[in-house]
Design goal:
One of its GO terms (biological process) is immune response-regulating signaling pathway. InterPro entries: Ig-like_dom, Ig-like_dom_sf, Ig-like_fold, Ig-like_Receptors_ImmuneReg. By secondary structure, the chain is an alpha+beta fold. The chain has a domain of 96 residues: Immunoglobulins (Immunoglobulin-like, Sandwich). 28% of the residues lie in helices and 27% in strands. It is built from 2 helices and 10 strands, in the order αββββββββββα.
Length: 201
């Protein structure tokens, strides 16, 4: 019975060893790659971007990781690039890459630097009259506004505010005239009635 118990314990240990995967090797022999993105980490929504994972070690392939995602994207072996077309808000996040050698041993590198991809929505001037009529006029730098938890880039109008200011002045004058009519109207009607009453008397 004792021999049978020992054999049973050994069999259980061997079965558990087969079921439990071996730990991931922590030795990273390759140099750390460098991750870059073109044209930049802040782009207009709908634009195309290209991630590039650069490694100094030859004959390597690289994976592109997005923080929070389980799946990784295998980059091109030739240049280590990955093109992302029509960037949307769902593509935003923190990216990194990691490379490995293309051989039987498969040596890994450390994880690269991280890049935060931020797609932005481009909005024009709220007033159509404030938009310059001359398409050659280039707007100045824009400012960012948080809309629905996402940053939105709103470009400023050019320095020529003539048309916009003229419209505002006209609206202000019309509003002022309307207020004067509303205030002076009852007084004028009352004065006319009083004059008519005195004439009859």
């Amino acid at each position: 019975n004792l021999i049978f118990l020992i054999l049973l314990i050994c069999l259980l240990e061997y079965s558990l060893h087969l079921l439990i995967p071996s730990p991931v090797p922590t030795e990273l022999h390759l140099p750390r790659p460098h991750l870059s993105v073109l044209p930049g980490h802040e782009v207009i929504a709908g634009a195309d971007v290209m991630f590039r994972c650069s490694s100094t070690h030859p004959s390597t392939s690289c994976y592109l990781y997005l923080e929070g995602q389980i799946r990784a994207q295998l980059l091109s072996r030739e240049r280590g690039d990955y093109n992302l077309s029509h960037v949307q808000n769902g593509d935003s996040g923190r990216y990194s890459c990691q490379c490995y050698t293309i051989n039987a041993s498969r040596e890994w590198s450390a994880v690269s630097n991280t890049l935060d991809l931020v797609p932005r929505i481009s909005l024009g001037c709220p007033l159509a009259l404030c938009v310059p009529l001359d398409p050659l006029l280039s707007p100045r730098e824009g400012w960012d506004l948080p809309v629905g938890g996402s940053p939105v880039t709103v470009p400023c109008v050019p320095a020529d505010y003539t048309l916009c200011n003229a419209v505002r002045l006209a609206l202000a004058a019309a509003l002022l005239l309307l207020m004067l009519l509303m205030l002076l109207g009852p007084l004028t009607v009352g004065a006319a009635r009083s004059h008519c009453w005195r004439s009859r008397c």
